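Write out the 3D structure for:
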Amino acid sequence: MPRDSDLISLPPERLARAIAAGGEALIARQNPDGHFVYELEADATIPAEYVLLEHYLDRIEPALEQKIGRYLREIQGDHGGWPLFHDGGFDLSASVKAYFALKAIGDAPEALHMRRAREAILAAGGAERANVFTRAQLALFGEVPWRAVPVMPAELMIAPRWFPINLWRVSYWSRTVIVPLLVLMAKKPRARNPRGVGVRELFKTPPEAITDWIRGPYRSPWGRFFKGLDRLLRVLDPLVPAGFRARSIERAVAFVRERLNGEDGLGAIYPAIANSVMMFDALGLPPDHPDAAIAWQAVRKLLVIGEDRAYCQPCVSPIWDTALAGHALAEAGEGHRARVESACAWLAERQITDVIGDWAMARPNVPPGGWAFQYANPHYPDVDDTAVVGMLLHRNGDPAHAEAIARAREWIIGLQCRGGGWGAFDADNDHQFLNHIPFADHGALLDPPTADVTARCVSFLAQTGSAPADPVLARAIAWLRAEQEQDGSWFGRWGTNYIYGTWSVLCALNAAGLAHDDPAIRRAVAFLLATQRDDGGWGEDEETYAGAPPGRYKESTPSQTAWALLGLMAAGETDHPAVARGIRWLTEAQRENGEWVEQPYNAVGFPRVFYLRYHGYKQYFPLLALTRFSSLRQSNERRVAFGF
C-alpha cells in the first residue's frame, strides 16, 4: 500500500521546472535541419568486428584502434569476458571477438585482462563453441576450416519463391547479411592480417581436429533434419558446375549493387555493410572502385569517435529519434511548435514513395509509402517507424502532410499479416522451420508479427480515423488480445521488454476507443502496478528474454519508468498514487542539466543474442511522460488523445 506521503502530488512548480529543463536539454540536441540523432550502442561485437575488418583489409588506423581498445577494456565484465548488455552475464561469442580484436590491436595475451578473458572463454567450451557468425569470422582469418561453418550455397540466389528455403522467406536483416556472405563462402578468401594475429589459444581442441562443428542442442526435429541436409550439401557443393556457381555469384553481386544505398550502405546495418566491403575485396575490386569505396565509407559512417574512446554502432536511428523526440516536444505545448514543425518537415522529405522494396515480394500490389529507420534505406522501410512518424505528422495538423499520412496508412494496411498482426519489415515472414537451419543458431532469421509493432499500427490507424469495427483494426485488436500474457503483460520484441510491450498495447487499445474497464486493460494495469519498485520507478532486466521475471530489475531506469507511466495514463490511471510516485521518481532522477542517465540497455535486436542501448530513450520518453501527466492533470479530460 502507498504511504500517505506518496499520495501528495508533486508541487506544480517542481513539475514545470522538470519539464522546462527536459525540453531545453532535448532541443539542444536538435540539428539545424530539424532532425535528431542519438548514439545507438550495442555490445562488444560490432566494434570488435570493425577492428578485425581493418586487419582483414590491411587498413589499420592505430590511433583509432587504440580508442576502440580502450572502449572494449572498459566494458569487459567482472566474469572476465564480455556481456551482451550492461552488467550482463558472460557471452562466449562476444568474448571471442573482443579478445581477438584486442590482440590485433596489440594487447599482450599475458596481460591480466586478456588472461582473464581467455580463461573464461576456455571454461565456457572454447572458441569452437562460438556461434555461426563468429566461426565465419574466424574462417575468414584462417583460424578455423570452412567446414566449421554451415553450408550456404551461392545457389540460394536463384532458388524460386516456392522453394522451401529461399531468400524471400527470411527477414530483411538476414537477407542483406547473407547475400554478400554467400559470395565470401563461395570464394573463401583469407584476411590479409598483416600482423599475423591468431587466437589458437582460445580453442580447447585444435580446430583441424574438431569433427562436430555443427551440433545440437536442437530445438525441434527440424534441427536434426537440417543437419542431415548440411551433410548432403557438403558432398554436393564441390560438384556444382563452375558456370552455374558463377551465375549465382553474379546474382548476389547484382542484389548488393541494387541495394548499395550510398554512404548509408547495404541494409544500413553494420554486418551487411561489412560483408559487402569484404565481398567487393574478394571479387578483386580496388579500394577506389566506386562500389568498394562507398561501401567502406558506409562502414566508417557508423563510428562514434571521442577524445579517448571510440566504438562502432550497428546502425543509426535518425528517423526513429526524430519522430519520438517530436512527440515529446509536441506534448510539451505550443512553445515548441516551431521545433516540431521543423522535425516534421525533415521527416516528410524522407518518406519512401518511389522505390518498390523487398516487402513487395509478399505484397506486390501495395504502393510504397513508408519510412526507414536510418537516414536512407529505401528498399527496407519499416512499419514501426512509419506508424510513429505518421502519428506525429497527424497530430501536428499541417494539411500539407495529408497525402503523406494517407500513403502511410495505405502501406501499413497493405502489410498486415494474415493473422491480424504486423511484422517490422515484411508481411507473413514467419516460416518458423527456417529458424532451425544450422546457420540460424541465433534463432532470429525471421520477422514475425509482434505485439509492439502491431500496437503502433493500431494506434496510428485509430488516431487517423479508423474505427474499432473496421476489419483491419478489429483483426489487429483480436490478435493483440490473444497475445496477452497470463500476468497481463505483452512481450516487447523491439524494446525491453514486458514493460515496453505493455505500454505499447495500452496506448493502442486506448487509441482504438476501448473502455478502460476492459478486462485486458485491467490485467495490464495490474501487471504494471505489481512491478513498480519501492522507489517509485520501474526497471526491467534484459534477462527477461531468457526467462527472468517479467518487468523486474535491480534498479529503476528513466525509459522504463516513463513507459510504465505512459501505459498507466493511457489506461485512465492518471490519478493513481502509483503514477504520482513514478512522476516524482523521474523528477528526482533528472540531473540539473535537464537530462537523465541510464546505463542499462533498453532495447533488443535479437532476443538472447543482440541487445541495444538507445541513448535518446532516457531523454525523450521521460519528457513525454512528464508533459503528458501535466497536461492531463490540468484538464478535465483524463483520456489520452493521441495514439502514442
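The mean pLDDT is 95.
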